[in-house]
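agent> Task received from the user: take the single chain below, predict its 3D structure, and emit structure tokens. No templates, no multimer pairing.
agent> Plan: (1) validate residues, (2) run structure prediction, (3) serialize to tokens, (4) report one or two observations.
agent> Step 1 OK, no nonstandard residues flagged.
tool_call: predict_structure(input=
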Amino acid sequence: MNEKSSQRILAVLIGIGLLFIVLLPLVVGRRGRDDDAPFPKSHPRPIRDYVPGRSHRLEKLPPELELVKAFAKPKHAPVMGEWLQAHPEQGQTLADFEQERPAGGWHEGRVLYLVAVGVLTPAQEQLVERTRALLSDWYQLEVKVLPPLSEEIVPPESRRDRQNAYGTQWQTEPILDALLMKRPDDAAGLMAITATDLYPGPEWNFVFGEARYGARVGVMSIARHGDLMTEPTLVLNRTLTTAAHELGHMMGLQHCVAYECAMNGANSQEESDQAPNEPCPSCLAKLKLRLGLNPLARAVAVERSYADAGLPLGDLPAQLDVWRDAGVVH
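)
tool_result: status=success, residues=330
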């Protein structure tokens, strides 16, 4: 092989590699989009050297959360196709979160709202009601369900058929725009829930959910959560985790890169299922700051509601034992 042939082959291989890098982010799962500010900056180092959240885990948290930090599992280094492999985010420390507090303070709304878009079956309506009750314990806030919105809020040009098992997809933008007009004044967040698959833009394959941080609105789909008739507990756990994740974005939380956490980004249902249904200590510290919730009182309520629903308890019982042994009260 002569020198020119070698150079030509090398150029082709480099071109293929660059094309792969460009196309990989188009496979998307759960995310939160901030329409009023840029995305978090990408990690400056090459992906092969990217170890997510190492410095974040050194940050001091409120004393009661320091007590249970040892239970949190560090976020694993991303592998091919996972969210952080495609989007090597820097993440958000508790200090970052506090510095990002709006100049006029956080919105004082104390009610979360859920609203269906389009027609849901009776079983899906019951799923929304069960999710509502679980979210109330998760965020320690009142959660209400509003009358459903017609699917006509999604115009024909914002619909497409992917010719797959999920059928028609709706673009998220017109739904989010409509929610802005429906959001109650006392809303800490307004979440739309639909059984139709979603996509945020023509270059994306799908999205589990999407939220606008400052606007306190979001939308999620249960289309990829499984068969509600044959695996209702799994579907409930996935729906709760997605809803809690998107509502977290409405509270100002970015994707968590420090620990395995409900606020992790995900590119697939498989990756999403790897995340726990609970916030890590760092993200819980942000919710404590944002909402004034008591972590122990929250854990007691969540453990009870998870047990009643048959959902995974994770490390909640062990955390409660630590807090009780340390004399932490609520």
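agent> Step 4: summary for the user.
The domain at 48-325 is CATH 3.40.390.10 (Collagenase (Catalytic Domain)).
agent> Done.
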